[in-house]
Amino acid sequence: MKPICPLNVRLHLPQSLEPLRELAHNLYWTWNTEAIALFQRLDPDLWEQTNHTPVALLSRIRQDRLLEAATDNGFLA
Q1: What contacts 9, CB < 8 A, 6 or more positions away?
Q2: Domain spans in the chain, listed from the N-terminal domain onward
Q3: pLDDT tens digits for 35-71?
């Protein structure tokens, strides 16, 4: 059976983490070590599993981890 149409699920990012979405879609992160460390810090194991791809990381990360990061002043800084 052929699919009728593709389904795109968009992750709900807490407001304080919304800049991560823009950063993930901007190649700036590829040469900025602080940006790379930021994505890696969210979930080191998932970062490895997604081959260091921020868009993939954000599409697969647990919502509770995002909520935790959204209230972590160290991460937000």
Answers
A1: 59
A2: 16-76
A3: 999 999 999 999 999 999 999 999 999 999 999 999 9
